[in-house]
């Protein structure tokens, strides 16, 4: 069976409420899914030094990369899709204006296999998850080192099918869990351990064979690896649901710039400010990086400076301020709003490997998801990190359990809303097809609900242009749910205006060409002649910066046939305009960014 491929991102239903939280609070904690996946590659990767398709600047292991998803423009936020795909674009440079790494200018242009002392090992924007006591399948996303074996689970593709004993492509892929019980989890605490591939490196059918949405990486890795450069790309850090502004740092709707939290490889960290590879750093508005979470606060480097190497990161930043790290004391206390969730893994060779974790007293492995140490006063049994999810629960091998080797988890993200959910049923597409029998009658690997009657993939929307900050210091943005279609009995296609002012009416503007024109202190993203749909008042939603959202089913506008240009094959550009009394930028209004979509048959 071929697997693929969610295409549109939009409004998501919340996961089931857990014992600790009511449904409304769960929704309030969950981040709204973004529209792009960002990641980094290591210094041995085959596409290091390849020219970025947006700027022509060579890619380094210190850059944050995205996806170039034709036919959409290369330089807008895109999402994984089936290949073949072009070289990935740089979404944030590792140098000035991005992460601000001092060593980055000298690293640009170095060939694969030549370290540039800027390797980003872990990535977060501070809005991951948060992890709840129980979560639906598809909440924990991770990548593995290219040498991972995995062990067979209930779904395919998985680490075992794509790893060293299978297609040898796991190093560029991203996998997700198939369901876990209450955390924290000792090894084999779940009765059905395993994972399923959700994002592929190149988006092409592998030798196993499976197809699922890709990133534009070179997939095939040989094992053991060559002496200098690899034959493919190893994904080294990931945030699957992408950056989204404003950065709210948790529950409080205050304005702050986009922050990027990351960790550097142990060989790179000292060259960029004297940091350790076990430290978590933060760059704000272009850097340079500063220390966010020191190694000691994570139970790392207890054997000496730079003896541990943090290799994956998921951060739910609750306490305001980029330098205000308040470590979790006991697992899940971040749900009370007073501590920061910081989950991580460590690289093979770290001194902490084999040491007893502070929660269970079990030897730590490189495939474990770890958390900050449990203090002795709370029952902690060591000064080392606590085991949040033992590797075996994710379908990864660990020798402590009598398995063949230690698989290395080297990228991590936590979500509590589906990221890739083309039919909007609240279930990740990878899980829906592999475990829950989502219809795929034509056997093309795509959910039948996510393609037009011809069996072709629906061309997904994309966002562009720049929104105008509103009077609540929030930046309204567009997303979508469903597919725009000119069919006789269309399903809904919602154009969603998020983080808008509550109780203030607004209009959906549309046209057939995009613009980026100065207008009322912001940008008009639709070129005239502009059509204006009837005014609407936003509905209340229990998430986001403002708790308000516009929702317009554009398929009703198409079906009304009042505009003869709204036909199959037509590209449409939309933007919300809203009344906003007292807007600090003037004119008493605000504007979302723009969104473009193609009307399917």
Number of helix segments? 5
Q: Report the principal-axis shape.
A: globular
Terminal Cα span: 27 Å
Biggest sheet overview: 6 strands, antiparallel
Please state the CA-atom Rg, rounded to the nearest Å: 23 Å
Mean pLDDT: 85
Task: Show unreliable segments.
Answer: 1-35, 245-257
Number of domains: 2
Determine the structural class based on helices, strands and strand pairing: mainly beta
- Strand tally: 28
Classify the beta-strand content into a percent band: 15-25%
Determine the fraction of residues in helical runs and give it as a percent range.
Answer: under 10%
Walk me through what this model shows:
It is a single chain. The protein has helices spanning 23-29, 104-107, 159-162, 429-434, 554-559; strands at residues 38-41, 64-65, 90-92, 120-124, 140-144, 174-177, 195-199, 235-239, 259-264, 280-284, 290-293, 310-316, 341-346, 369-371, 386-389, 409-414, 462-464, 477-482, 493-498, 506-511, 514-519, 522-526, 531-532, 539-540, 548-553, 571-579, 589-591, 594-598. The protein has 601 residues and is mainly β. It folds into two domains: 36-419, no CATH class; 461-598, Immunoglobulin-like, CATH 2.60.40. Strands 17, 20, 23, 26, 27 and 28 form a six-stranded antiparallel sheet that branches. The protein has a four-stranded antiparallel sheet with strand order 4-9-10-11, with no helix packed on it. The longest helix is centred in the N-terminal third of the chain and has 7 residues, at 23-29. The chain is globular, with a radius of gyration of 23 Å. The chain starts with 22 loop residues before the first helix and ends with a strand. The relative contact order is 0.14.
